[in-house]
Amino acid sequence: MTAIESVTLEAADVTAADSFYTTAFGLDSTQIRVRAAQAPTTGFRGFTLSLTVSQPATVNALIDAALEAGATSLKPATKSLWGYGGVVQAPDGAIWKVATSAKKDTGPADRKIDSIVLLLGVADIAASKRFYVDQGLTVAKSFGRVYVEFDASSGPVKLALYRRRALAKDAGVAADGTGSHRITIGGDTGPFTDPDGFAWEAGQS
Predict the structure, then answer these.
(1) Exposed, middle or buried, 171 (CB in 10 Å: 0-12/13-18/19+)?
(2) What is the DSSP letter of 48?
(3) Which SUPFAM superfamilies match (predicted)?
(4) pLDDT (tens digit, 9 = 90+) per residue, 56-101?
(5) In the chain, N or C: fewer CB atoms in 10 Å?
(6) What is the per-residue pLDDT for 2?
């Protein structure tokens, strides 16, 4: 396996979720898929999805569109040491961060997304890193036991690992959560389940 081929979010109302992602972020089924599920879940689901963009104006445009489409603000867009960004929770419960490393606008606002990153909150960075390397992923960036990012190759979504509590803090939510992650990841091997209970299935592309 060299990259994620698909990310499938589970929602009670597939039509509404599909409509939200198209309206808010301009995403389609080549990037994010949605399927019906009623699996019980409470609290933090252990993952976030990040949209990386080119400038603060684009962050604002996407977050504003998400809020207008029914999302809930978890962290209003603001400047930080690393750039500018904010966090929203989609109506289906998935948490999305929209961010840029730029601190100033270089042009008019648009809705162009440069990359999508799936961040998994894990209990043991080193163990999860070894697991995914054994599955065939290639490490692109690694910062000790804090953060690991894998090579996305030509896939539509990058995969990264972050400590669960740190990821929850970054998202603006409590780290506690039980039940289904409500997400399935597709790759060219599988099916399997990683050390933190994230399920993978054979890719459909």
Answers:
(1) buried
(2) E
(3) Glyoxalase/Bleomycin resistance protein/Dihydroxybiphenyl dioxygenase
(4) 999 999 999 999 999 999 999 999 988 999 999 999 999 999 999 9
(5) C
(6) 65
**Which pair of tokens denotes residue 19?**
């409509």
Alpha-carbon gap, residue 138 to 190, rounded angstroms: 17
Q: Which residues contact 143 (CB under 8 A, 6 or more apart)?
A: none
Spatial distance between the Cα atoms of 164 and 159, rounded to a whole number of angstroms: 15
- Burial (0-12, 13-18, 19+ Cβ within 10 Å), 23: middle
Contacts of 136 (CB under 8 A, 6+ apart): 1, 2, 189
Residue carrying structure tokens 């081929």: 5
What pTM does this model have? 0.94
Architecture category of domain 6-202 in CATH: Roll (3.10)
* Number of residues that this document lists for the chain: 205
Percent of the chain with pLDDT over 90: 82
Q: Which of 189, 149, 186 is nearest to 198 (CA)?
A: 186
Tokens coding 52 = 């990386």
